[in-house]
Design brief:
Keywords: ATP-binding, Nucleotide-binding, Transport
Largest sheet: 2 strands, parallel
Distance between the termini: 46 Å
Order of helices and strands: HHEHEHEEHH
InterPro entries: ABC_transporter-like_ATP-bd, ABC_transporter_ATP-binding, P-loop_NTPase
Shape: elongated
Helix content: 40-55%
Strand content: 15-25%
Strand order of the largest sheet: 1-2
Radius of gyration: 18 Å
Protein name: ATP-binding cassette domain-containing protein
Number of helices: 6
Family: Belongs to the ABC transporter superfamily.
GO molecular function: ATP binding; ATP hydrolysis activity
Oligomer: single chain
């Protein structure tokens, strides 16, 4: 049983999420034989199978191939369109700019900037999120 779901609800939820994440062909295979990308999809599926109102994505496309990354991005955009609250953590500025409306830049445990990407770019007079990030953390650093 899945967290209070009936067998029918659980089957429907598994079928829906495995279809959305293009995992249906792998459903009966041992997880230990999955590729890194497929294991990442399994982890994602496990965390969202119950359709929570708030979703946390921590570096969801790290280590994935281009097609798997696009699939994950499209899924996140669908969640966003469905008005799910999404907390997204990434070091990938392109991905962040594509998927996020508002950002918080954290450096050494402190919030150094917060707001919409467009407003922060305007405030810091930067054309790219990467340049904005570098400005907010005090420039290029050897860390």
């Amino acid at each position: 049983k899945l967290n209070g779901m009936s067998d029918l609800e659980a089957d429907q939820a598994v079928n829906k999420i495995t279809s959305e994440l293009e995992m249906s062909d792998y459903i009966d295979r041992p997880v230990g034989k999955y590729s890194r990308g497929m294991k990442q999809k399994v982890s994602l599926a496990r965390s969202i199978i119950h359709q929570p109102d708030v979703m946390l994505f921590d570096e969801p496309s790290t280590g994935l191939d281009v097609l798997s990354s696009k699939l994950i991005h499209d899924f996140i955009l669908k969640c966003k369109k469905d008005n799910k609250a999404i907390v997204f953590s990434s070091h990938n500025m392109y991905e962040t700019e594509k998927l996020c409306d508002r950002i918080i830049i954290i450096h050494k445990g402190k919030i150094v900037a917060s707001g919409t990407i467009e407003q922060l770019k305007k405030d810091y007079q930067k054309d790219s999120l990467e340049d904005l990030f570098i400005e907010c953390i005090g420039g290029m650093q050897d860390e």
